[in-house]
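Homework help board

Subject: predicted structure for assignment chain

Our instructor gave us this sequence and asked us to write out the predicted structure in token form, then describe one feature. I got the tokens but I'm not sure how to describe them. Can anyone check?
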Amino acid sequence: MNGHFVRIGSIIFLACIFLHCGSSRKPPTEAPRVKTTRAETPPAEIPLAEIPHGETPDGEILPESIASAGLAGSASWVRKSDVAVFAGESLFEYINGAAEMYHKYDFTDLSAAEYEKGNAVVTADVYAFSSEDMAFGMYTTLRPEEPDTVMIGIEGFAFDTNWIYVKGPYLVNVYTYDNVGMGEVRTIAAAVESGLQGTTAKPEAFEAFPGNGRVPYSDKIYAEAFLSQDVLADVYTIDYARDGHRLTLFTSLDPRSAKLEAWREGIEEEYDPDMGYQHLPYDESRYLHTSDSYRGEIIAGPIGGRLVGMVGYRTEDMDILVAWLHALIEQP
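My token output:
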């Protein structure tokens, strides 16, 4: 319908179809990961200016021109038109049904522009979110398991002729359908990044996780439905590898244990003091223990206003969990 829907949002949509319909692999220990792949170029590309959008705000974040990565004196990349802005629900005009995922991470607005040099066009999309954590969380839904990382912003990766990265409350996708070298795409990505305000550090919540044994690029933020539980929103996770086994540690703000109790009620889990986990240093020795055929054993409980736990628990992993819980207790 709309050729522009093949942009980053369509990558998510098509990849989700692939994961649910074409894979026989056993699901991982968390919600299914979106595999980032290059979508097919549509037969007819609709110019950005023809898609309904809002007016460009004052203090726009996309420059009018960007110097080329070519030899000195090479023509610059010039913005074809005013920056197109898609705020709130209007994002559906740009990436169709994939906008739903962005809204789960509290998307606010998108600024998009096409840069032209000769017959080539490179597009820069800058998605803004309500917070830096939500921007990073959305980025982690796009990042592949083994990304070709690039040093830009907080973190980024490249594939084909795309650069995707996050900085502060912004998620950026720079891409082209034309025969443009990766050096030019990189130059435009860097020029856009230099105009964005915000941190280049990962969310502070990840600093509370153990440092040893982390699986690279496994840090994620789930805006909702972690472990397929509607009550588990805004959950931070990191995977760990141990003796060929992969487990997940997770934490989420839960000052009154509302998430824990709703989770327990949802799975009809009864507290059993004879389960053998009383030695875990959870507040008031309260904990939840459950399991399923896909994720294995799950243990969780309250620590100082947070819900903290492990997915993929085994008896031999108890020392990791206990050490982490004690470390959290000792934090100021």
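Reply (TA_rk): Your tokens look well-formed. For the description, you could write something like this. Confidence is low (pLDDT under 50) at residues 1-8, 10-45. That's the kind of observation they're looking for.
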